[in-house]
Design brief:
Helix content of chain B: under 10%
Helix content of chain A: under 10%
Largest interface: A-B, 25 and 25 residues
Radius of gyration of chain A: 14 Å
Distance between the termini of chain B: 37 Å
Oligomer: heterodimer
Mean pLDDT of chain B: 94
Shape of chain B: globular
Shape of chain A: globular
Radius of gyration of chain B: 13 Å
Number of strands of chain B: 11
Largest sheet of chain A: 6 strands, mixed
Structural class of chain B: mainly beta
Low-confidence stretches of chain A: 1-6
Strand content of chain B: over 45%
Largest sheet of chain B: 7 strands, mixed
Strand content of chain A: over 45%
Low-confidence stretches of chain B: none
Number of helices of chain B: 0
Chain lengths: 113, 113
């Protein structure tokens, strides 16, 4: 793989603050997007998803925003907790019926006590 | 409901040896994926199955990798012979018929010495 992948972007946040993790996706035809959380030694865990006909979706403490104009996705975590520390990946599904995900590089979230 | 099950969780082998990974998807999920995840990177698709049919194996290195899903349920991914560069986490994911959401197993961490 590319050496840049060994140096994950890192976001450090104080416990209790809000976190915003950003992702640029590649395919303007992608119509489904997911955020995954991956803790060390575990597989990616589904957090929240959004379809291209929406620009915002809220879950419990998490919100995903989609800006199709600039092909940008963000994940907002409210009142960040130590258990939120992990690597976060966005994934896009390229076009209706392809069922093929393309994953972003990932962002490491560190929650400071 | 049980999630995606993978075994073994860890495997250490010497180069040129064969290795196999097993995956049992979530019950009723017809689509199964095998991914490879290198350190600090997002998962990369190796192969996708719809029931017992491999519908996308374009990124599977067929000279040494093979996969099967004979009865459309569990699946095996094999590497023979393994090379040093195959060291990675091998993830299995499954998806139900009426959804676009993939659910991942815990992965198998392979170390080739």
């Amino acid at each position: 793989g590319e050496s840049v992948g060994l140096h994950l972007p890192t976001l450090s946040v104080q416990e209790g603050d809000n976190s915003i993790i950003n992702c640029a996706y590649s395919n303007s035809a992608s119509d489904y997007f997911i955020w995954y959380k991956q803790e060390s030694g575990k597989g990616p865990q589904f957090i929240i998803d959004i379809r291209s006909n929406m620009d915002k979706r809220q879950g419990q403490r998490v919100t995903v925003l989609l800006n199709k104009t600039v092909k940008h996705l963000s994940l907002q975590i409210a009142a960040t907790q130590p258990g939120d520390s992990a690597v976060y990946f966005c994934a896009e599904m390229g076009g209706s019926g392809t069922y093929k995900y393309i994953f972003g590089t990932g962002t490491r979230l560190k929650v400071l006590a | 409901e049980a999630g995606v099950v993978q075994s073994p969780r860890y495997k250490i082998i010497e180069k040129k040896q064969p290795v196999a990974f097993w995956c049992n998807p979530i019950s009723g999920h017809n689509t199964l994926y095998w991914y490879r995840q290198n350190l600090g990177q997002g998962p990369e698709l190796l192969i996708r199955y719809e029931n017992e049919e491999a519908v996308d194996d374009s990124q599977l290195p067929k000279d040494r990798f093979s996969a099967e899903r004979l009865k459309g349920v569990d699946s095996t991914l094999k590497i023979q012979p393994a090379e040093l560069g195959d060291s990675a986490v091998y993830l299995c994911a499954s998806m139900g018929f009426s959804t676009d959401t993939q659910y991942f197993g815990p992965g198998t961490r392979l170390t080739v010495l």
